[in-house]
Design a protein that fits this description.
homodimer; 345 residues; alpha/beta; 6-stranded parallel β-sheet; 15 strands
């Protein structure tokens, strides 16, 4: 086994807690030798990093579903890579793996941290490395369990999803179509809306940058909205609340419109529609479903093999692009699941 | 059978749609002869009227769970009274009944309208006439099904209820205590808080007029909040959202703090706590549970007989007091279920 400590690990660490949109000065680029894996440990060469809206929340202080990233620590990120050193019989050199490797080019995981890191071997027969960060990764798992277990769509119902061209949205809509629902997306720009309808098979997609979401919902959801899968919050959530049906389910997955607020989050003024319509608004955190990831991966991989399910990734090259690439999420400049490639294959 | 058309019916009709708090000019007092019951019909002498926060919503135009009261129509209200004329074998003269009789001193119900009016005989052995508008009436039914079927408290959990001394709140808290929960009320003023703790047996009550709700929740809900039954909305809802536990259930029953707004409703800024805590916010409309009212009435009446359940009504005298009495709800000047007595017994 090669001596990994001769390699240089390029890292992006959190230098300051951002106020509003993260700035370059909120990050610090660090180089240090790769750590040796130690007894039972593993060293991974990181290949692709997942860039997710949730990362913005992890940068804030305060109580949440996981502790914040500490100042000076390597930024947390999901990733895929390849084992380059292993003292653990469960992981062989050359195997592809996924896990919370962080924004760095190498990740050494001590034996005691393997569970916490979520280190798992992945099968490239089921999907490509970028797909393992998209439909077969956290966004796919979030979509699968959030839609099916919290939203609980029934065939013939109308499902609306915001951020429809994004990582979670594209999977939510396709699973809802497979379930037999009418599916209407909300996305920004004609290109994304065209992709969602033409390539993913949604029934319609409302371009919130060009048209009234209210009018779009009236036109494309003539029977009202039974399930709304919300990735954006803000005005769009409020507008959808005016169109929900009795017994509707609203899945709160995220609120990307609010993550860089320097003023308080905009609460949904129309929340009393929940009362009038005996409707429900409920949050999802994907980690709760870890015991069932395997089931979801197998199902989505099968749909992909059958040609019934597609995915789109937007891959940016180079660790040094991390700060700018992350901010693409908040202006909607990414098109599909945003991924940072940090090493040549 | 006496000729009821010789009697005068005193009515309060909706004259204008209020902007903000209802004004005297939004009402019109009308006198007209009592209508004859006709074939299969019934005439009721109204004795007590239920005054409820929901009435404010019925005065607004727009889509809701029931149509608004039309301009010029008798104001909708639940009530109890006594049959004084009947052409229907199901209702005998002298029987006590409840139903949606409206804000008037007599109500004649055609045979075809008996179902819609909810005309039902009531048994004064189970409770007094005012209690039939409180724990055995709509507020009691709302509390029973909202808490047990939507909130679903488990023994040992912490239940918080706002408007704790009000009609719905007093019943929610007592049922939660009987379920084996820790119960913390939120109410305005030392007298109400004392009543809730000393007479109804809540574990604690936070006086939102005198103290910080946030500090009160920290002190009295050391294990967090599992069920929040919300009657008030606004800042109190937002504060409770910061203290909920994983998997918490928030029952949206009303939002009395917002009903007279002339600005948009204050949405809950902290709604993303639903995501972080995988929690649920869900609306209740009591009419959905009509098939099971009998079960709830029997259960609550039994608890009352056993001395395990108490109720408090605040009875105002005289139909002419209707406009002022209704507005007592919005300033919290009522103490217990607010009832208007419109006839001598």
């Amino acid at each position: 086994m090669a001596d990994v400590t001769a390699l240089t690990n390029h890292q992006v660490r959190l230098a300051a807690r951002p106020v509003g949109l993260p700035k370059d000065s909120d990050w610090r680029f660090v180089e240090e030798p790769v750590r040796a894996p130690g007894a039972g440990g593993v060293t991974v060469k990181v290949l692709f990093l997942s860039l997710d809206p949730a990362m913005r929340g992890w940068m804030n202080e305060g109580r949440s579903y996981i502790p914040p990233v500490g100042l000076g620590e390597v930024m947390r990120a999901g990733a895929v890579g390849q084992v380059i050193a292993s003292n653990n019989p469960r992981f062989s050199i050359g195997e592809h793996v996924s896990g919370g490797f962080g924004v760095q080019t190498y990740c050494t995981i001590a034996e005691a941290d393997i569970g916490r890191t979520g280190l798992t071997t992945i099968d490239l027969a089921a999907g490509t490395l970028p797909q393992w960060l998209n439909a077969l990764g956290m966004p796919g798992m979030t979509a699968y369990f959030g839609l099916l277990e919290v939203g609980r769509p029934r065939p013939g119902e109308t499902v609306v999803v915001s951020g429809a061209a994004g990582a979670v949205g594209q999977t939510v809509g396709q699973i809802a179509k497979i379930t037999g629902c009418r599916v209407v997306g909300i996305a920004g720009g004609a290109a994304k809306c065209g992709f969602v309808v033409d390539e993913l098979g949604f029934d319609a997609c409302i371009d919130y940058k060009a048209a009234s979401v209210r009018e779009g919902l009236k036109q494309h959801c003539p029977a009202g909205v039974d399930v709304y899968f919300d990735n954006v919050g803000g005005d769009i959530l409020d507008t959808v609340l005016t169109r929900i049906n009795r017994g509707a389910r609203i899945v709160i997955c995220g609120a990307i419109s609010q993550y860089n607020n320097t003023t308080p989050v905009k609460g949904p003024s129309n929340y009393l529609s929940l009362l009038v319509n005996r409707a429900r608004m409920e949050g999802i955190v994907v980690f709760d479903w870890a015991d069932r990831y395997r089931e979801a991966v197998q199902q989505i991989a099968q749909w992909m093999r059958e040609g019934r399910f597609h995915s789109r990734e937007d891959v940016v090259q180079g660790l040094e692009k991390f700060p700018a690439a992350l901010n693409m999420l908040f202006s909607g400049r990414n098109f599909g699941k945003l991924i940072l490639q940090v090493a040549d294959l």
